[in-house]
Amino acid sequence: MYHYDDFDQAFVDARVAQFRDQVDRRLAGDLTEEQFRPHRLMNGLYLQLHAYMLRVAIPYGTLDARQMRKLAEIARVYDRGYGHFTTRQNIQYNWPALKDTPDILAELASVEMHAIQTSGNCIRNVTADHFAGVAHDEIADPRPYAEILRQWSSLHPEFSFLPRKFKIAVNGATHDRAVIQAHDIGLQVVRNEGGEIGFAVYVGGGLGRTPFVGRKVRAFLPERDLLGYVEAILRVYNLEGRRDNKYKARIKILMHEKTLETLKGEIEAEFEARDRALLDLPPEEVARVAAFFAPPALELKKPVSDRVERRRDKDARFASFLAANVTPHKAPGHVVVTVSLKPIGAPPGDCSADQMDAVADLAEDYSHGEIRVSHEQNLILPHVALGDLPAVYDRLASVGLATPNAGQISDIIACPGLDYCALATARSIPVAERIAQKFGDGAKARAIGPLKVKISGCINACGHHHVGHIGILGLERAGEETYQITLGGSGDENAAIGQIVGPGFSYENVVEAVETIVETYMGLRADASETFLDAFRRVGLAPFKEALYERSAGSDI
Amino acid sequence: MPDIITANRLADGVVVFQTAESTWSEDFNDAEVLPDAAATKAASARAAEDAARNLVVDVYAVAVETRNGHVVPKALREAIRAAGPTVRRDLGKQAQGLGPRSAPIAVGDA
Ligand code: SF4
C-alpha cells in the first residue's frame, strides 16, 4: 500500500483546515450557497435527494484494515450505520450533516484518506483492476502508475477547471477488469517486443448520454512518457473540449467530432512540442512507488487443501462459494476472495458498519491487512491462504457476506437511482433487488452462468448499463418509471456498447422482461459453456426482440 | 395545481417543508398547501428570504394532490424525497412517522 509522506499528510491536513474554515463561514452566513457550492464539491460533498452526500476516494480501490475500520466508524458516528461502495471504487455516505463534514474529513485524514477531486470538472479518482498485484494474467501491477497519476493530478493547477470531469483507469493484466475503454483515458499495461513495459493508450471512452468505446491512440507508450503523454491529451482536451454544452463537453465528443486521426495527430503534436525532460518519469521513481505495492511475503503452500476439499464435499453452499467467489492467486496455495455486496434482495454495494468491521478483521487475520473495492461494487480479500477458506467463509457467512454469486446474474451493478440520487429519473436499486430475488444465488443462477446485469437510474449511466450484458436504464415517461433494455454490452478487452432491444418496460414488467431474455438465451445457447455474451454475439438481437415483443405479453407497447 | 414549498436545512441537509406560520418543519404533514400560483409565489418569496438568511438551501415548490384523503406529492421523485428510500423503510421520514400519510410506494412484485 502507498503511505503518505510528510508532504502528502501536510497537504491533506491543510485541506481539512481550509474546508473547516469554509464550512464555518458558510454556517455563519459569510459565504452564500453560490460561493460555497464549488468548495463543498471540491471536497466531495453533494446535496442529494434526502440530504448531503459525501463521496470518499479509495484510490484505485485499495485500502487496509485500519482504513476500513475508520470508514465503519464514520458510518456509525456521523451517518446511519452504513455506506455505499460505488462503481468508481469509492464509498458514499448518504446522510452526513454539513456541520460534521470537517470532522469527518479530519477522521479520514488520520488514516491517509480524503474526498478531494471526487467531484467537479477535474481528474477524478484513478481506478484500476481490483485484482491488481494478485492476478495470474498480470503484466505489471497497475497501482504504482495509478498512484503516480493521482499525485500528479491532485490539485493540478492547469487541469482543475476542465470542460467536464475526467476519468482515468489503468489495467495491468491481459483481461480488462477495470473497464478502461469506458474511460476518458484508458491505460493498458503492455510489453513491447524488447520486453519493456509501456502502455496501450485509449482515449474518448465514456458512457452517459452518448456512449463511446475508447479508441486506441497509441499501441505502445514507453513508461517514462506516461505523464508527458497524459498531459498532452489533457492539454488538447482542455483547450478544445466544448464548454458551451455540458452534454457535449467530454473528450469522447471531441474525439467523435474531430475523428480519431485528427485528435491523435493533435495529441502527438502537443506531445512532440513539449520539453520531454519536464515530465520525464524515471524508472527509479516508478520503482520507488512500486515498492509500496510489493506483494506480501506469502508462504508457499500446497495448491490443494484437504480441509477445503472435505468441506466442499459436504457443504454445497461452500462449494458454490468456491466456484463463484474464489479466484486463484499468483502465489501457489493462495486465493483471492470476492466478498459479494449483493446479498439477495439487498441494495447492491451497501455495507453496514458492522460488516465493514468484520471485513477489516478478516483482512487482518487472513489477508495481510489488505482489502480491495471493485467497480462491480464488491469487496476483495486479496491474499487468503487456501487452507483458511473455510474459516473465512464461516466468518463472512456470520455477517451476511458469503453470498456465492460473484459474476452471476444476481451480482448486479446498480447506481443509487431515485431512492437517493437527485438526478435520477427512475429507481434502480429495487429493480436489482427484484431481479436478484427472481434468480437467486443457487442452482438457477449457476445454470445461467456468467451474466453481468447493470442498472442506471438515469442517462448519466453511473450503473454502467451500456456495458452490461443486459443493461437497464431507468427513465421517466409521463410520470411513470420506464426501463430501456440493452443487450450485448461488454466492459472488458472486447468492449462494446449494448444495443437497445426495443421499447421500454414498466417498473412492474421489467423483471419479467429480463426473465424472458434469460429464458431465450437458455433456449438457444449451443451448450452450457456458451455464455450469454457469446450467444448474443452469435445470434444478435432478433431472437430476443421476438421473444420480448412478439411472443410475450410482457411488453408495454 | 396546489403546491407545497420544500428545502434542505443548511446545517444538516435534512429535508424540510414550509408551514403556514412560515417556519420549517421536518414533517411533510406540516407543510402548508398552497392552493394557487399566487400563493405559491408569495410563499416562495418568503422561503427565498430564509435561504438568504442561510437557514435553508435549494428551495423549490412541489406539486401535490389529494389521494384517498391524503395530501401527497404528485411526482415519484418528490414522494420518495418526502418519505425516504423505498428500499430502506428504516431510514428517512417514513421511519420517524414524518412522511406522507398515504400507502408506501410499492417496491416488490405485487
Ligand atoms: S446514473 Fe443517474 S441516477 Fe444513477 S447515480 Fe448516476 S446520476 Fe444518479
From TrEMBL, chain A:
SUPFAM superfamilies: Nitrite and sulphite reductase 4Fe-4S domain-like, Nitrite/Sulfite reductase N-terminal domain-like
One Pfam family, short name: NIR_SIR_ferr
GO molecular function, one term: 4 iron, 4 sulfur cluster binding
Keywords, ordered alphabetically: 4Fe-4S, Heme, Iron, Iron-sulfur, Metal-binding, Oxidoreductase
Domain Nitrite/Sulfite reductase ferredoxin-like intervals: 52-110, 345-398
Domain Nitrite/sulphite reductase 4Fe-4S residues, every copy: 119-272, 409-551
Keyword Metal-binding among record annotations: yes
Name of protein: Sulfite reductase (NADPH) hemoprotein beta-component
Lineage of producing organism: Bacteria, Pseudomonadati, Pseudomonadota, Alphaproteobacteria, Hyphomicrobiales
Automatic annotation (TrEMBL), chain B:
Name of one Pfam family that matches: DUF2849
Domain of life: Bacteria
Database matches in InterPro entries: DUF2849
Annotated protein name in UniProt: Uncharacterized protein DUF2849
